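User: C-alpha cells for this one?
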Amino acid sequence: VTRGEGSLSKEQEEDLLGWLQVTLGPRVSKTKVTRRLQSHPCIVTVAEMGAARHFLKTTLADKSAEEKYRVLQPTLEINPDHTIITKMNKLKSENPELAKLVAEQIYDNAMIAAGLIDDPRNILNRMNDLLTMALEKH
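Assistant:
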C-alpha cells in the first residue's frame, strides 16, 4: 500500500479534482475522491463497464478518441492517500508541466486497467517524456 505524506485535506481534494477536470478536459466526464482504493492512485469507472468494453470494440471502433470519451462518460476516482496523488497535487504549482504529464499518465493507466484502451502504444511518447524528467536529476 503506497501512502502519501498524509492525506490531502478536503480543500486540497476539491482543488485537485477541479484541476484534473480542466487538465484532462473531455477525456473525463466527472472527477471524485474514493476511499475504496488501497494500492492504486486512481480508477476509471463507466456505467455498464462490460457493455462499454464491447461497445468500444464494435460500434465505437472507428470513432475518434473524443467521440469515445463523449459516449463512455468516464469518471476518474482518485485515492487522496496515494503518494502519486499527493505528490502530483504539490507539482501542480511547483512543476505544472510534469504534473500534467503525471495526470494524463495515471488516467491512461486506469483506462488500460479498466480495459477501455485497446492500443496503449499512443502513451509511449508521454512515458518517455516522464522518464526523461524523472532522470534529469540523476
